[in-house]
Design a protein that fits this description.
This is C-di-GMP-related signal transduction protein. The chain is built from 21 helices and 8 strands. It has 457 residues and is α/β, with parallel strands linked by helices. Helix 13 crosses helix 18 and helix 18 runs antiparallel to helix 19. The protein is globular, with a radius of gyration of 24 Å.
Length: 457
């Protein structure tokens, strides 16, 4: 999700330097064959250039970047744009939102030919080449140069082979195929040939479990899409006993339980007890001595923290996997934290509104866990009417914020802008920034008290 760096009139007399350019970023999850997070695609929203004067041509994003500016000479608009994008990609919020995973980022010809791109760590960034990129000897020479410096390339949005695809294929480690647009009859052959050539294959546009299984059968290695966050009717999405226990615990927590009631409920699930004891003994919640009983752990942690911790664990995969690699949990945690941060930027929003925003985000796709009717699940959770209306019908301020974060997850910048027009004073840049902050928070929120403490900040 996103960050920014302000734009004024670039490359003109009296213009500010490139440190004032704005670029925003959104992230989209990439999963491996086991359905676990293994990377993020970074969607870049570059600033719109001001209209050029009649006697000054507009910058063409597909033309070669000018050489570095001579000493004392202002950098060109192309160089300013490249510097702004690269600076945003390497700054702290983007790095934190990647949670240790590699980033796949679309690079224009202009950015590729600019020296600024070499500030991106080669081990952390995969460079995606659009099918519309102009391929000539200068571009091939630059790709070879960067390849020698250990940069890796992805052929992006492939639907079927063409001349540009053929020229770039020898230099690509990865091929991303849009399975929603590629001819169905061509996919098996194309996948087979590329796999034989040693290419890693990514299927993009995978938004259903059936689509995931079809791409898996064709030999794809990575999958991009939100199939994992959809309600499923297959056995893979049946409610497990631990999730039933979590739901029961949430219902109990909603009624202001006594410590004795909480203790009795927690004892029904030893896994929850183990997590809670670990949480209570973490440095962030230390009580001056080692917590050795469940009652002490409940008192040390507090019902509010236990409730939010339980809400996030509801989305955890039943397998023994690192929670930061669990795509559904990370998406739920990121969306909930975004909602909480964003509503605090709006007028007259207090603690109650922030709590409602968090709940709206965290339960906005609870049907992906339990299946069946979203409305009936929300009723079981005894959520308030404004929260239910926001989730079911996108009503009210909570509904607008939910629509904004969904647009951000898709990298649909025009939709984000439309939502911001109704959520003033929030701006697209702020929404993107909050998205990155939420993603970074989600990477630690479920591993230790550090993240859970930060919920309470």
């Amino acid at each position: 999700m996103s960050t920014t760096i302000a734009i004024e009139n670039p490359g003109r007399t009296g213009a500010t330097d490139d440190t004032q350019l704005n670029a925003s970023f959104a992230r989209q999850p990439i999963l491996n064959r086991d359905g676990m997070l293994c990377g993020y695609e970074i969607k870049v929203r570059a600033p719109a250039w001001p209209d050029a004067p009649a006697n000054e041509p507009a910058s063409n994003p597909n033309t070669q970047a000018e050489p570095d500016a001579a000493p004392g000479r202002a950098p060109s608009p192309a160089q300013q744009m490249a510097n702004a994008i690269v600076r945003g990609l390497v700054q702290g919020h983007v790095r934190g939102a990647l949670t240790g995973h590699p980033a796949y980022v679309d690079v224009s010809r202009e950015l590729l030919l600019d020296d600024a791109i070499e500030r991106l760590p080669a081990e952390r960034f995969m460079l995606e080449l659009s099918p519309a990129i102009e391929v000539d000897e200068a571009l091939i020479e630059r790709i070879l140069q960067l390849h020698g410096r250990r940069y890796r390339f992805v052929l992006d949005e492939v639907t079927q082979p063409n001349e540009s695809f053929a020229r770039l294929l020898p230099y690509a480690d990865v091929v991303k195929i849009d399975v929603t647009r590629a001819p169905a009859a061509l996919l098996p052959k194309l996948a087979s040939v590329l796999k034989s050539a040693g290419k890693l294959l990514i299927a993009s546009g995978v938004d259903t479990q059936a689509g995931f299984e079809a791409a898996l059968a064709l030999g794809f290695d990575r999958f991009q899409g939100y199939f994992f966050a959809r309600a499923q009717t297959s056995l893979t999405r049946r409610v497990s006993a631990p999730r039933h226990a979590l739901l029961n615990l949430l219902q109990l927590l909603a009624g202001d339980p006594t410590v004795a009631q909480l203790e009795a409920e927690l004892k029904l699930n030893p896994v929850l007890v183990m997590h809670l004891m670990k949480l209570a003994n973490s440095s962030g919640l230390a009580v001056g001595h080692k917590v050795t009983t469940l009652r002490e752990a409940i008192n040390a942690t507090g019902t509010d923290r236990i409730a939010r911790w339980t809400q996030l664990l509801l989305y955890a995969d039943g397998r023994k996997v690192a929670l930061e690699d669990d795509p559904l949990l990370q998406l739920a945690a990121t969306r909930a934290r975004f909602m909480e941060l964003a509503i605090e930027r709006l007028p007259e929003a207090g603690r109650d509104e922030a709590d409602a925003a968090f709940l709206t985000g965290v339960f906005s796709f609870v049907d992906a866990v339990f299946g069946g009717s979203l409305e009936s699940t929300l009723n079981v959770l005894t959520l308030s009417r404004p929260i239910q209306a926001a989730i079911l019908h996108r009503e009210g301020v909570l509904g607008l914020l939910l629509s904004a974060v969904e647009a951000l997850e898709r990298g649909a910048w025009d939709d984000v802008e439309a939502m911001c027009a109704r959520l003033q004073p929030l701006t697209v840049e702020e929404v993107a920034q909050l998205g990155l902050m939420a993603g970074a928070w989600a990477g630690v929120a479920d591993r230790s008290a550090e993240g859970l403490e930060r919920i309470e900040d």
